[in-house]
Give the backbone structure.
Amino acid sequence: MADYSEDRPIWPGSSSFTTGSTPFGFFDTDPLFQQHADAFAVFASQQVGYPIMDVELIDINFYTAFESAVVEYSNQVNQVNIVNNLMNTLGVQTGSAFLGGGSFTGKAVGTSLNYITKLSKAYGTEADSGGNVKWRKGVVNINPGQQTYSIRAAVSASLALESASLSNTSSIEIRRVLHGPPPAIVRYFDPFVGTGLGSQNLLDQFNFGGFSPSVSFMMMPIHADLMRLQSIEFNDQIRKSHFTFEIHGDDIKFWPVPNSGTGSNASSLHYDKVYIEYLFAEEKDAQAFLFGNTALLNGVVSDSSNIPYTYQTYSSINDMGRAWIIKYGSALVKETLGFVRGKYSSIPIPNAEVTLNGAELVSQGQTEKSELITQLREFLDKMTKEQMLTRQNMEATQMSELLGKVPLKIYVG
């Protein structure tokens, strides 16, 4: 009996797999797949009647069914993997260089807050608590008698750029001005100002009178220190001429007015430089596009369509998975053979005709495929994290009940 669709003999009983024999070649370079491809062809042909009956298929039909079965198995397994790991991989970068291999396949994925932290970096930039945008520092050189200074001039000098070109290309955001008197903590532990703490008598009572308050500590709650520091700062702000500044457009104005006079004016300002920390708005916009209160990340895992899962490596699939692949591939072979035989429902022979079983093979193959998919899905659904946690909780409950029935020991002292 000849194969009329192609000038090639029908299945001869054996084959020799070579790279490129399958339509997509997903697994052609896997040595175990190459070995099992020919074994599968023999197995599937014997399942449909060879060698008692001719099988109107050739080697590539068996190889296609085998590859399709592995692809379907990988698809079903990866669907469960995506359900389990999508929340933990949102925001992870995608691309050909990812993980050096390009996918999560065959890798254990643990719990991570990567997606949340990446989205929160945009808010961290605004709140001065993190982010991806680089902060830069400029210096304002204070001149006696000059109260107002140009921010762009200080930024240009720190970047060695001209003010004109800078104003045309960059938007400056001032994040922090390092300007003010010495911190209150310096005066709190001033060894020559012990009377302000009201603890000098306590030190004497404990025979600590010879020690400086800077290195002698009472057993007091930490909030007492914080409130005392706040009192010092409020005292400077309300009772004294407070060191402060204002920013209007490109100008920054300082109070009190810098003065290098003599006598009572000699110490009116005890700094000669003010440092400005700033960033460029363009760099902030490049990190995340902000629409209202939403941050968008590009080139990362966003949903199930771009989470990097690829087909399973055939040689890494266990025997249970390979058994399912062989059965599913055999069902595909029955379906394909049924389509081939269904082209003619019967073939005339001298004084009679031969009725082919094409429709029966198609129906049987489709039924077996459906049953195998259902069986695999029911098994894989038990492997979701939700189901495993439920099962673990039930085991813990049962174990607790069993242990509760164990008689307690009585100890006689």
Notes: Confidence is low (pLDDT under 50) at residues 261-268.
